[in-house]
Design goal:
- The structure is a single chain.
- By secondary structure, the protein is mainly α.
- It is built from 5 helices and no strands.
- 75% of the residues lie in helices and 0% in strands.
- The chain is flat and about 55 Å long.
Amino acid sequence: MTGLGLTVEQIVLTCAVWVLYGLLHSFTASLGLKRWVARRWPGQMPLYRLAFNLLSAVLLIPPLLLIYLWHGDWLWQWTGVGWWISNGLALAAMGGFVW
């Protein structure tokens, strides 16, 4: 058990799942794979972006599920003015993506 309320195995597995997600996400976003798909199935290239987004969303479920199921103690928690500033900036960033 660590000071975070999680076992070492849980932390290692969660990190490994995030690394695996990152590797798969980077591979599917790579220009090399896009070129290979374009050469092999040129007519299906418009569907590549849709497939990439769907795959990314589905592959995001396991690491988020592990974090939800194996939540530990807070490393830090914003309070007071810091809470308003941090959440306001996060909301502005989300608004920037929508805009």
